[in-house]
Amino acid sequence: xxxxxxxxxxxxxxxxxxxxxxxxxxxxxxxxxxxxxxxxxxxxxxxxxxxxxxxxxxxxxxxxxxxxxxxxxxxxxxxxxxxxxxxxxxxxxxxxxxxxxxxxxxxxxxxxxxxxxxxxxxxxxxxxxxxxxxxxxxxxxxxxxxxxxxxxxxxxxxxxxxxxxxxxxxxxxxxxxxxxxxxxxxxxxxxxxxxxxxxxxxxxxxxxxxxxxxxxxxxxxxxxxxxxxx
Length: 230
Description:
There is one protein chain. This protein is mainly beta. The protein has helices at residues 73-76, 148-155, 159-165; strands at 2-13, 21-33, 37-40, 44-51, 55-64, 85-95, 103-111, 118-127, 135-146, 175-188, 193-204, 218-229. The protein has a 12-stranded antiparallel β-barrel with strand order 1-2-3-4-5-6-7-8-9-10-11-12. Strand 6 and strand 7 form a beta hairpin. The chain is globular, with a radius of gyration of 19 Å.
C-alpha cells in the first residue's frame, strides 16, 4: 500500500473563460495498491491495466463538477446549470528513457450527462534543473481537445438560452479547446511530510475562444497542498 493524505487550497477562474477567480479548499487523497488499483482526488477511482518500466495505462471513473448559474449569476443567468456527471477515463503515461526523462501523458474521458461529450488532454513534462530527491520540479506544455457536444454544452448558446439570457446564439465546433503550460514543485521535508505547488496557464482557443461567455481567454490556476505519506 502507498497512502498519501492531506489538505489543499486552490485559486482558479469561477468557470472556464471567466475573468473572476474563486478560492476553494479540500482534501488530498492518493491511495495505491501494488501499482494496480488507486483512489485519488486527482485521478479518480481506477486500475492500471498495463504496467511496465517506462509506461502505465489506466482506466478510471470520476466526477465532472459541471457548472452552476449561481457561481457567477451576472454572466451565467438564463443559461441553466450544467449538472455534475460521472465520467470514464482512459489514460496513459510513457517515460522516454532514464537519460531523457521526458514524461508523455495522454487521457481521453467520456462524460455521461452534464457537460457531456468526449474530452482529451495531452501533456509533456520534464524535470527541471535544480531538482533532487527532496525537491522535485516538473514543467511542460499541454493541449486540450473536445468534441462538438461538449464544447457546445460548455461554451455554446442555444436559441432558448439566447432568449433567456440576452446573449446571441453561438454554436461551438469540435476540436481544439485550449493550450497551455504547467509547473509543479514538490518538497519532501521528511520521508513522510511533503508539500506541493501546481501552477498552470492556458489559453482558450478554437471556436470556444469566440463564445460570448469567454470574458478572458488566458486562464491561470494555482494550488497548494500539504500531505503525509504512510
